[in-house]
């Protein structure tokens, strides 16, 4: 192999092998970093519930003493007992509380991005701060890349919400991007054939497109981006078939179940279960229905007054999702995550709401074959700072990947063969793995 043809990846593999050989022979000592301990779960899909805006941990999964909504800091609501002995949650999570034996509450998440929602959202989805040289892939794209689709007619990654760069595939390329949904009962609008285009006309269009793609690829040999775009196009045509599009027919579900899920957000959770059941690997369900309280989870000022409406909606839908996954025998193989970009401080602002807090906030993991019914980490008497078992965003990502059987220490490679570990030195929460 000539030096000119030696890529970065080949160089790393070759030098690693040489180091191992010389170390084994005793010729030279090898000072290699010890391989981090590996834990593996048995989940093969993930439903990622996103509470964009910053859910107040002190008003949800980490309640403390009552505040008064004005000068006295503390929880805005009373707390209730849960299925985890000695642990409480907010009174508006009354359906979830008795099901928390299927869950792990992580109360000690922490990072340093407190002012910008966009930057914190990007961190929560990619596990890294932005770089000037690398576009990092989102966790959904990494799962798509690592696990691949279960069926050729199904995408591996779906987002229910509007497109956002934080969910993008980054350097992995468009093949590992997401299908996004805004109309949950009709499916992606682009997959529905217009009324004036019959099947024969559609076939002629596809044949013409494929001939153009073939010609374009022949004129640009070795262009990975063009190849990836062609693969995405082929997948799109396959997904436009009945196998994928029938997943959106929620009318096939019992009326009683649809009513149990409740609101529009609840119907998104029901569709997430149907997508996972059909073979999708990673489904993000965005809870961004701001009209319930005027601000969504970003509860500055008056948004705090009707925050309970959001909590009640989350409670009903999440509890129904857990029970539905259990009934359909999917809970052990489906990891359900409730995540947000940061939390809120226990103090109230001048308008009676809360500001931002990133140094201590909560998330929830459920199902996925984990050792559930436990709490990870603690905060102080006001949930203002972590007092034990801090969990970084990289650790949280490593835990999700490990639950899905993905090695969080494995390297991905950029188009120019630069190695990038799946997580930024994240370590999975070992004690929740059996």
Layout of strands and helices, then pairs:
Blueprint: H1 8-25, E1 45-50, E2 79-81, E3 88-90, E4 103-110, H2 117-126, H3 139-147, E5 157-160, E6 179-181, H4 199-219, H5 224-239, H6 242-245, H7 255-261, H8 264-278, E7 282-286, H9 307-327, E8 334-339, E9 361-367, E10 374-376, E11 378-379, E12 386-388, E13 391-392, H10 393-403, E14 411-413, E15 419-421
Helix pairs in contact: 8-9
State the main characteristics.
nine-stranded mixed beta sheet; disordered N terminus; 10 helices; Alkaline Phosphatase, subunit A; 434 residues; 15 strands
Q: What can you see in these coordinates?
A:
The protein is 30% helix and 14% strand. The two termini are 46 Å apart. The protein is built from ten helices and 15 strands. The chain has one domain (39-192, 240-432): Alkaline Phosphatase, subunit A (3-Layer(aba) Sandwich). It has 434 residues and is α/β, with parallel strands linked by helices. The protein has helices at residues 8-25, 117-126, 139-147, 199-219, 224-239, 242-245, 255-261, 264-278, 307-327, 393-403; strands at 45-50, 79-81, 88-90, 103-110, 157-160, 179-181, 282-286, 334-339, 361-367, 374-376, 378-379, 386-388, 391-392, 411-413, 419-421. Strands 1, 4, 5, 6, 7, 8, 9, 10 and 13 form a nine-stranded mixed sheet that branches. The protein has a two-stranded antiparallel ribbon with strand order 2-3. Strands 11-12 form a two-stranded antiparallel sheet.
């Amino acid at each position: 192999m000539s030096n000119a043809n030696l890529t970065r990846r080949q160089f790393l593999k070759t030098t690693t092998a040489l180091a191992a050989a010389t170390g084994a022979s005793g010729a030279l000592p090898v000072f290699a970093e010890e391989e981090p301990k590996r834990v593996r779960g048995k989940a093969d899909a993930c439903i990622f519930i996103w509470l964009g805006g910053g859910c107040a941990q002190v008003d949800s999964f980490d309640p403390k003493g009552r505040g008064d909504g004005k000068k006295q800091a503390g929880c805005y609501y009373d707390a209730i007992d849960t299925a985890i002995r000695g642990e409480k949650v907010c009174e508006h999570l009354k359906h979830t509380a008795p099901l928390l034996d299927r869950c792990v509450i992580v109360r000690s998440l922490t990072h340093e991005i407190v002012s910008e929602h966009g930057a914190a959202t990007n961190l929560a989805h990619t596990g890294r701060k932005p770089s000037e040289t690398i576009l990092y892939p989102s966790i959904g794209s990494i799962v798509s890349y690592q696990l691949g689709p279960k069926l050729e007619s199904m995408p591996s990654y779906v987002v229910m919400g509007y497109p956002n760069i934080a969910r993008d595939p980054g350097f992995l390329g468009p093949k590992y991007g997401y299908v996004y949904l805004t109309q949950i009962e009709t499916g992606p609008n682009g997959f529905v054939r217009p009324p004036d285009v019959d099947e024969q006309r559609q076939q002629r269009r596809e044949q013409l497109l494929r001939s153009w793609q073939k010609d374009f690829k022949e004129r640009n040999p070795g262009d990975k981006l063009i190849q990836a775009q062609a693969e995405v196009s082929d997948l799109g045509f396959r997904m436009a078939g009945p196998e994928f599009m029938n997943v959106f027919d929620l009318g096939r579900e019992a009326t009683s179940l649809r009513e149990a899920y409740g609101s529009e957000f609840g119907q998104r959770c029901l569709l997430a279960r149907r997508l996972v059941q059909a073979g999708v690997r990673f489904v993000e369900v965005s809870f961004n229905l701001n009209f319930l309280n005027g601000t969504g989870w970003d509860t500055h000022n008056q948004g705090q007054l009707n925050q309970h409406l959001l909590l009640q909606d989350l409670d009903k839908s999440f509890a129904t999702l857990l029970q539905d996954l259990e009934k359909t025998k999917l809970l052990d193989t489906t990891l359900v995550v409730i995540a947000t970009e940061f939390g809120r401080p226990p103090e109230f602002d001048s308008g009676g709401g809360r500001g931002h807090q990133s140094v201590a906030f909560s998330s929830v993991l459920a199902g996925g074959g984990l050792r559930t019914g436990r709490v990870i980490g603690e905060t102080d008497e006001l949930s203002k700072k972590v007092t034990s078992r801090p969990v970084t965003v990289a650790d949280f990502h490593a835990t999700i990947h490990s639950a899905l059987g993905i090695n969080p220490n494995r390297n991905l490679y950029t188009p120019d063969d630069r190695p990038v570990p799946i997580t930024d030195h994240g370590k999975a929460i070992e004690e929740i793995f059996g």
